[in-house]
Amino acid sequence: MTTRPVLEIDGLSVAYQPHRRRPPVPAVRDVSVRIEPGETVAVVGESGSGKSTLAAAVLGLLPGTGVVTGGSITVAGRPVVGARERDLRDLRGRVVALVPQDPTVTLNPTRRIGPQVAESVRRRPDVPKRSVDAEVLEALRAAGLDEPELRARQYPHELSGGMRQRVLIAAALAGKPDLLIADEPTSALDVTVQKRILDHLEQLVTERGIALLLITHDLGVAADRADRVLVMRSGDVVESGPAATVLVAPQTEYTKELLRAAPGFSVKPREATVAASPILRVEGLVKDYALPGGRTARALDGVSFSVPKGQTLGLVGESGSGKTTALRVALGLLTPTEGRVEFDGQDITGLGWRQVRPLRKRFQLVHQNPFSALDPKFTVEQTIAEPLVSFRVGDRTSRRNRVYELLDAVDLPRSFAGRLPTELSGGQRQRVAIARALSLEPELLLLDEPVSALDVRVQEQILGLLTTLQKDLGLSYLFVSHDLAVVAGLSHRVAVLRRGKLVEEGPTTQVFEKPESEYTQELLGAIAGQRHSVVPQPIEVSRS
Length: 544
Hints:
- About 35% of the residues lie in helices and about 25% in strands.
- By secondary structure, the chain is of the alpha/beta class.
- Among the domains are: about 95-175; about 295-360 and about 445-455 and about 475-525, 3-Layer(aba) Sandwich (Rossmann fold).
- The strands form 4 sheets. The protein has a 6-stranded mixed beta sheet, with helices on both faces. The protein has a 6-stranded mixed beta sheet with strand order 16-17-18-13-19-20, with helices on both faces.
- Strand 14 (about 340-345) and strand 15 (about 345) form a beta hairpin.
- Helix 4 (about 115-120) packs across helix 5 (about 130-140), helix 7 (about 160-175) packs parallel to helix 8 (about 190-210) and helix 16 (about 395-410) packs across helix 17.
- It starts with 6 loop residues before the first strand and ends in a 19-residue tail after the last helix.
């Protein structure tokens, strides 16, 4: 007896027409896919590949400028293309449900968790009103949340990122759907939390027979979790088939490029260079935060590490490990409760803003999110020149020349000088942020998750750029990340933080090949893309 596919997409084409007088812009072209009950299909591609448009079309949630120009979509035997809004509302939640990417944006911060999950439960005609609360608790429990009674009473801000993502899974599962669409469900999570979330989704697909459409830019995740993979580029499916076939023996050059750029497939620890004196040293850092009722929370507990001149120290840990607090203390933005910070042999602990300001020319910060780090009203030239203006370096002509030099250094055309951030891609924005940090010719860059918001190919380009700049300019880096695979190719040494304590520190090759801490072993084991024993030849990103 054959089962009917849960999702059937046949020759689907979607276009956007932002202006009536302009021709439509194709976003998806002639895509076909079938997903059976209990099957996971991953759609992989960079930003702009059309994968999220595909998911929106399945849900009947294309924006006003989007239109299906060809093909059909059927979910559990019910047509989506051309369906009335009333029928689509009945479909959503009960037949097909979405696990969106960002729980911070999706969850209502003013409402408790329980009532938000209850919205999905109430859409089911088989659940009487008196049973809604029990169904909510069951959905939270099924999503892997401990103490569901407590979680139902809490607000989103009282939960960790992983817990909030599980709430979104609970809300999707509460409607008992046949098809679950997970749109980058773990891209903002730590690797260990990501593994637990994906493990749970995999278990639910197996136990309940749910069909899962997994949207991701991470081929490591697709390799580990999907039965079949579709690789999209600029709206076209360039390759498809069983995951083990597509990801181990890719046929197209584009898929090979994505695989070479995926951190999980190209983990190659960087060799340490000769010993060098430290440009930054922190010793015995303790940082306590005051809590209501006279209590304190300890974010850092006796942390010590150093960044050698001309080299990179990777500071690794999950959310809440204390790595960002350590970075802020090193920058002088926070005063430690105990301990000291030295920059190039000078004790800067507790110095005031006026005292630290002259030194700030010598160390600069590159933020995590290139989409929020740049002033939207500033042109690229104004953004890069801003530190020069602030420190009164040069005149207008020399500053413009310096901007051009920096655009050359980060491989951006000089014509970009007049552009606004909205006219740049994520990778281009991050290059501008790096150019801005380099404008004062610093000796040390503090990099706070600088590639976590970027696609794997753009991520690889930025890491390669940082490696080249370090070699050419002799820069030192404190590289903060939750992902050991990303840290591997850039860092000469690695320090691992957990709950405010340093659990391991040493040369990158030593930490990766012979980790001493069980926690480090757990982080290494959580790197996506390790299920298949045969993987493509990695790109050589290591430079001593």
